[in-house]
From TrEMBL:
Organism: Paracoccus thiocyanatus
Pfam families tied to this protein: APH (PF01636)
Recorded family membership: Belongs to the pseudomonas-type ThrB family.
Annotated Aminoglycoside phosphotransferase domain residues: 46-268
Protein name, UniProt field: Ser/Thr protein kinase RdoA involved in Cpx stress response, MazF antagonist
Kinase among keywords: yes
Keywords annotated in UniProt: Kinase, Transferase
Entry superkingdom: Bacteria
């Protein structure tokens, strides 16, 4: 796939006109026999609503970007069905079938746009981006991600090898976006960061791959501090694909970098990593490339969001909400030798070892 096509995958580059709420309700009544109250949710590339029915039930309803590939929705639908079979207790959405038994279907909206529609169960909880997790809660986050990885291990799909810009194994393909970064200092850091990523690509290729969530960030996890597992939902499987296990974990760890980019920049993530290792293993090579992949996500985020903010200026606050803190983090990362970064999560590093089973029960 070409670099420019990488950006268009999944509808990232496609503008669209939003469907009105009353029109969306009419579609739901016709295809699901459901009605109620819709609340529009902030999203990056589609129309997403929360439906509250008169019976008190709640669901998530998504009207896809007009350019979204039906194969991608097939991948997501089949993956959620797989998780429901393999690990029924895992806190992920369930697919709600329409009257014809379909997990998603196509319709044409009043603007003449082709939209694919699907409904998912709603998972109660507080979005993680409104919570500052404690060390033990970060441990439980890591354990949940590892459990999700293991549940996905046996899944395959004809479209699993798709390529998207947010899969950082493809970071060098985003280099053409550097010209769109106006600040020369920022552009220089991003250029150096991509060059450093190329130095670990060979090691990355020795690591394991499978279908993974690939977007386990704070916006895609809901939690309840009163629940034993803390995590009450992992949502938005829109970036799911076959990638490196370490790439999937790096996305989760990105949220726990020190925003000031200090010397202990990676330390808050060690609790999450320990929780992950209490459930699933990582190889020595995966631990070595992991900190580099976290920073690759910082670089990809800066490049993609800067480009998308220019494409969709009306949605700039949402698109850029997490980008600005990355400059201090990237500066700290680039100030350290490659080998020192590679040793960040090595088992001998202070704090890097997994907690004991007894600690996991706390």
């Amino acid at each position: 796939m070409s670099s420019t096509n990488l950006l268009s995958a999944g509808g990232l580059a496609t503008p669209f006109r939003s469907i009105p709420g009353d029109e969306a309700l009419a579609v739901l009544d016709a295809y699901y026999g459901m009605t109620g109250t819709l609340r529009r949710l902030d999203t990056e590339k589609d129309d997403t609503f929360r439906l509250a029915t008169p019976k008190g039930e709640r669901f998530i309803v998504k009207f896809s970007n007009p350019d979204e590939d039906p194969n991608e929705l097939s991948l997501q639908t089949d993956l959620l069905d797989h998780l429901a079979r393999v690990d029924p207790g895992l806190a992920v959405p369930r697919v709600v079938r329409n009257r014809d038994g379909k997990g998603f279907f196509a319709t044409t909206d009043s603007h003449g746009q082709s939209r694919m529609v699907r409904m998912l169960t709603y998972l109660e909880g507080t979005p993680l981006d409104r919570i500052d997790p404690t060390p033990d809660e970060r441990f439980r986050l890591g354990a949940t991600l590892a459990r999700l990885r293991l549940a996905m291990a046996g899944f395959s799909h004809p479209h699993e090898a798709r390529q998207i810009a947010w899969d950082v194994q493809h970071l060098p393909k985003l280099a053409f976006l550097l010209d769109g970064v106006a600040d020369p200092d920022h552009r220089a850091m991003l250029t150096k960061g991509i060059a450093r990523f190329r130095q670990i690509e060979g090691k990355l290729r020795t690591c394991r791959r499978q279908v993974l969530h690939n977007d386990f960030n704070r916006s895609n996890v809901v939690a309840d501090r009163g629940k034993p597992d803390f995590v009450t939902g992992v949502i938005d499987f829109g970036d799911a694909l076959r990638t490196y296990i370490a790439v999937d974990l790096s996305t989760a760890l990105l949220a726990y970098l020190d925003p000031q980019g200090g010397p202990a920049m990676f330390d808050r993530g060690r609790d999450l990593l320990a929780g992950y290792l209490s459930v699933a293993d990582l190889t020595a090579d995966e631990l070595e490339v992991l900190p580099h992949l976290i920073m690759a996500r910082v670089i990809a985020r800066a490049l993609i969001t800067t480009w998308r903010a220019g494409q969709f200026p009306d949605n700039e606050p949402y698109i850029m909400r997490n980008t600005h803190q990355g400059w201090k983090q990237l500066h700290q990362f680039l100030s350290l030798p490659l080998d020192e970064i590679s040793r960040t999560f090595a088992p001998a590093a202070p704090g890097a070892a997994a907690r004991t089973t007894e600690e996991a029960r706390i």
